[in-house]
Please model this.
Amino acid sequence: MNVLLIPEDFRNDQYMLAPLFSGLLNICGKPNANVRVCLDPLLGGVSEAMKTERLDEIVARYDGMVDIYVLCVDRDGRRGREEALAVLEGKYSVNRHFFCVAAIEELEAWLLAAHDLPSEWRWQDIRSDVSVKEDFYEPFAKLRKVEYSPGQGRKILGQAMKGKASRVVQRCSEELAPLLAKLQAAV
Model:
């Protein structure tokens, strides 16, 4: 099984998405799934990642080689983003498995969900913060002394996501539980 993850910007997102989706597919009974992050083209932001011209290009390039596509973007506090993603999912799900998900509020929340956090941090505050990266992830990376490693610590900290995918789904159930159900149905 080949899964292609389409991030809004792979440069940092790849370190979080690949281990998380390997863990999710393990939950689905596919521990040997080939999970790849789309590195070409570099989309460079949510607006580019959600353009049909860019998605057409990706699907044309990878169709026949990919069993499941997953477009992953940050919600960034925009409540209408899920509806726009649902439209894209409907368009690209014809004759293929194409799923879309918006991280609430940023992908870094998923990474933090895999870890034991400082006792003074409240999970509700992390989930509601539109600047999770700056307000929680960066201080956490500094606390763990990994901020100068690849992906500003995301590579090292992201590795925990594979083994703790169930915990990440539980903590981020609003967006990840429905996605996990779609993955389970597809495999």
The chain has one domain: 2-186. Residues 2-186 form a domain with the Rossmann fold fold (CATH 3.40.50). The two ends are 8 Å apart (CA to CA). The mean pLDDT is 97.
